[in-house]
Specification:
By secondary structure, the chain is of the alpha+beta class. It has two domains: 112 residues, D-amino Acid Aminotransferase, Chain A, domain 1 (2-Layer Sandwich), CATH 3.30.470.10; 152 residues, D-amino Acid Aminotransferase, subunit A, domain 2 (D-amino Acid Aminotransferase, Chain A, domain 2). It is built from six helices and 14 strands. The longest helix has 15 residues.
Length: 274
Amino acid sequence: MLLCFMNGEFLKPEDAKLPMSDLIIQRGVGVFEAFASFNLKPLMLTAHMTRFMKSAKDSGIENIPDVEYIKNIIREGISRIGHDVRIRTFLTGGDYFDSEKGCFPEPRFFVIFDKAGLTTPEERENGVMLEPVAFGRDNPEVKSVDYRATYKMPAGTYEILYCPNGEITEAGHSNFFLVLNDNTIITAPLSRVLRGTTRGAIIELAKENGYNVEERCPLWSELYAASEAFLTGSIKMIVPVVKIGGITIGDGKPGKVTRRFYELYTKYLERWLE
């Protein structure tokens, strides 16, 4: 961590502390957002804050700070550091659950600013491997702090890939896209996955540039005929996928469609900076 905002002030990382009574520690109750800044501007800040508020509401967390207040904190934190960073905003369950109202009425809010941690050139050049798991993510519309399942994977694996009942929904930390016939991209609908901000940007760019977009769950059986696959995320941007379990995707190398979307996304990135 480079800087933290907690209890109404900016703090050194070593001075930022949570009490052991907080339900984010006791029961894993909490939601978060993670995104990066580029050219000292947060990427898709409004979209991230909209999702942050929805995750909190759907989790029963109430008395949330005002969105504009949070945006100002984020911008000030970036300014204090003076270079691009990764930003993570958190709302915890606080110290107790109000059983009569069915909510967490006194959440704690904090923000962590740290190194951006972008995808490496090697990962973009060579592609990554995913490990399939035969289940889906619990409550995919909420960005909960519970990411335990995403760490259970073999060495050399970039992320897990949720594959319930022969369908593919999303990866552990990313949205998943399958490419068929070099002109059709397939990604799971929002009813099944987290509303990825980069996912939305890629769909927007795809439609603007003549690609067919199918918002449905890719099928496991379609992996054998796929020409390419890639992941999207707020910090990683676009990452080519060359292997899923024992299946090689396409010719086992990052393809032209994935490269094209990376070029388009980085070219028009300013569109989504706030």
